[in-house]
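How a chain folds remains the central question behind the approach discussed here. No coordinates are needed to read the tokens, only the vocabulary itself. For completeness, the protein is quoted in full, as a sequence line and a line of structure tokens:
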Amino acid sequence: MLQTSAWERPLVARAYEGLRTPVSDTCVTADIAACRQAYAYCGYVVRANSRTFHLAARLLPSDKRLAVQALYAFCRATDDVVDQMRPGEDGTHLLDQWQKRLATSVHAYDPVPLAWADTQTRYRIPHGYVRQLIDGIARDLSQTRYQTFAELADYCYGVASTVGLMVMHIVEFQDEAALPYAVKLGVALQLTNILRDVGIDWQTGRLYLPLDELADFGLTEADIASGHVDDRWRAFMRFQIARARTLYAEAQPGIALLAPEGRFAIAAAAGLYSAILDCIEAQDYDVFSRRAHTSLWGKARRLPSIWWQSRMPAKQLHGA
């Protein structure tokens, strides 16, 4: 049986709450050519912004690949709306305008809303997850610091676990027991993002590291501002990387609860993204002067072992 920590339980409860919300009944009336062009545009957005997501999506059947690309483009566009504003700025009007576009652009050519509306309807994605995602992204406008990991994990759920829960509806899942695994994987992915982008986020006025844990390692915000890598910072990063790897490992058995045709793609997304942690270590935990990334060859050589692991049944992954 999957073990969950205290910080995970409220997140899993939110995942089940979202699952029970209504699905979209939007009738997309745009013609076939407009829909095809809208999905093609979403594919371009993915290729331009995330090589890892693009590679993982290519491992899905064509219809599901188009759908996850539409989901990515929707998430990216929502994030871009928030990124137009500074922390503390009232961006309600911009988010309202974006949500109005999402609701009314299904009859004309507005590519991201059109493809996303079609995807939501086709794959019966619960509206609660969409709402949780938008609220999670909007949180960047009102909160730039996180006191504890539990508080940070709640943010990670909003901006990442919700995406995984929606992807589950696209690739299909066999049992609701898959939900806690998706929550874990989302937190692991977002934590990897956070560790990679500490320097970039600091420049925008945001710090996504638990302040109490920084203090435990003798670090302050002044240390983040200086971008100096010392033994305290290395120890802190080793602790965070170990946590992320544990979450990836605990999430792995959930892949066996997905439809067979989607397992390799999700395993690839997790495996290739977790490799960023190796890169952070390889550059001596310096996430201030350079951004850790995995080369195309580095990704390619990992795929065979990821494919093999994605074929293992859940019981074997659990060690049963």
Summary: The chain has 16 helices and no strands. The mean pLDDT is 90.
